Automatic annotation (TrEMBL):
Gene Ontology cellular-component terms listed: plasma membrane
Family: Belongs to the LIMR family.
Keywords, sorted A to Z: Membrane, Transmembrane, Transmembrane helix
PANTHER family: LIMB REGION 1 PROTEIN HOMOLOG, LIPOCALIN-1 INTERACTING MEMBRANE RECEPTOR LIMR
Pfam families linked: LMBR1
Descriptive protein name: Limb development membrane protein 1
């Protein structure tokens, strides 16, 4: 009976944590859509300034959405996700009756202690920077501004994480799309490959049937090999069933589209570096900018705005792909029916940090000229010329290096294979020519 009650209690806790994680993902989606919605709203207001049906779309609405996105991002990052984690790990204080209330009480106490710890760290840091900071008045000021300050620091960390993930993701996107799409069958015999892979599958299956169940290591190893062979067979069957236009048109078109988007992104960053060097209004924080619906922020009008939106979504998808491609976060990838609730919470926090930093990164790199609104535009580090310039330079250099490494890796592999084959062919005649004479000579000497 007690075990059933414990299972029901754990199920309720998991359900609450899952709900909070889902809400956090919804906030992340809102942060991603924030900048594209603002850009398209600005162009719509320019195109239809007097239209009665779009009067609801105005600057105050856009500013309100930015403030709400900042508010809910802070709420999820500093309250809801820590609550979900501590609630999941809590068991209730010793001596109290076990149950949901005891776990909620322990979680709230842990949250209060965490808030006091963070508040103390920030207050001490401000006291070290300013001699008069350690006063009660400064404590009230700190309470008013420490959350935006913390969010600014986390946004900087998110931008640095994007700087690490996005170039890797831009180069990794080609491999990911190559796995999702059907590649052209140039100089390939799919029937022969299917025949070979079927023989491999049957051979492994016979070995599995002949192995005793007591040899667990060999059985597990063969089962893994069998799964790989079945996966290859499924992929070959999919390639064989694909139509000619899907094989020969879709794959090259998608690869060319990815290459164009990546090239445009790097080109815009390079142009933004030049703007930063010659024009101080190119700084993310230095530009006051026109109001919503007063002027187009793109040189090419609606087409340019659509291109900016496509690039923003492309950078977000690339950053997520790059995040899970990094060796440090490789084991962090969620898997179907094999993901703990703690890992889900960690993934939600990571996605929230990346999505909250996306508008800042897009404006810092010059992907868009739309000014950051609300708390997003009050980050202190955005006004530092050297930080912004270094960020742009690092992004352009790292992205270029990742792409060069990606596109030259196949050439390098083929060269190494060719060199290895040539070396083997040069050495092989020597061994063949030496084998019989050496035997005869050794026999004659013997």
């Amino acid at each position: 009976m007690a075990a059933d009650e414990q299972e029901d209690e754990d199920a309720i806790v998991n359900r609450i944590s899952l709900f909070l994680s889902t809400f956090t993902l919804a906030v992340s989606a809102g942060a991603v859509l924030l900048l594209p919605f603002s850009i398209i709203s600005n162009e719509i207001l320019l195109s239809f300034p007097q239209n009665y049906y779009i009067q609801w779309l105005n600057g105050s609405l856009i500013h309100g959405l930015w403030n709400l996105a900042s508010l809910f991002s802070n709420l999820c990052l500093f309250v809801l996700m820590p609550f979900a984690f501590f609630f999941l790990e809590s068991e209730g204080f010793a001596g109290l009756k076990k149950g949901i209330r005891a776990r909620i009480l322990e979680t709230l106490v842990m949250l209060i202690l965490l808030a006091l710890l963070i508040l103390g760290i920030v207050w001490v840091a401000s006291a070290l920077i300013d001699n008069d900071a350690a006063s009660m008045e400064s404590l009230y000021d700190l309470w008013e501004f420490y959350l935006p300050y913390l969010y600014s620091c986390i946004s900087l960390m998110g931008c640095l994480l994007l700087l690490l993930c996005t170039p890797v993701g831009l180069s990794r996107m080609f491999a990911v799309m190559g796995q999702l799409l059907v590649k052209p069958t140039i100089l390939e015999d799919l029937d022969e490959q299917m025949y070979i892979i079927t023989l491999e599958e049957e051979a492994i299956q016979r070995r599995l049937n002949g192995i005793s169940s007591t040899v667990e290591y060999q059985t597990a190893e063969l089962e893994r090999e069998l799964e790989k062979v079945k996966s290859k067979k499924t992929n070959l069957e999919r390639r064989k069933k694909a139509s000619a236009w899907e094989r020969n048109l879709v794959y090259p078109a998608v690869m060319i589209l990815l290459l164009i988007e990546t090239s445009i992104s790097v080109l815009l960053v390079a142009l933004n570096i030049l703007y930063l060097l010659v024009d101080e209004t190119a700084m993310p924080k230095g530009s006051g900018g026109p109001g919503i619906g007063n002027a187009s922020l793109s040189t090419f009008g609606f087409v340019g705005a659509a291109l900016e939106i496509i690039l923003i979504f492309y950078l977000m998808v690339s950053s997520v792909v790059g995040f899970y491609s990094l060796r440090f976060f490789e084991n962090f990838t969620p898997r179907k029916d094999d993901t703990t609730m703690t890992k889900i919470i960690g993934n939600c926090v990571s996605i929230l940090v990346l999505s909250s930093a996306l508008p800042v990164m897009s404006r810092t790199l010059g992907i868009t000229r739309f000014d950051l609104l609300g708390d997003f535009g009050r980050f202190n580090w955005l006004g530092n010329f050297y930080i912004v310039l270094s960020y742009n330079l690092l992004f352009a250099i790292v992205t270029t290096l990742c792409l060069v490494r990606k596109f030259t890796s196949a050439v390098r592999e083929e060269l190494l294979k060719a060199l290895g084959t040539c070396a083997f062919k040069e050495c092989e005649p020597q061994f063949v020519s030496c084998s019989l004479p050496c035997t005869e000579r050794c026999g004659s000497e013997g």
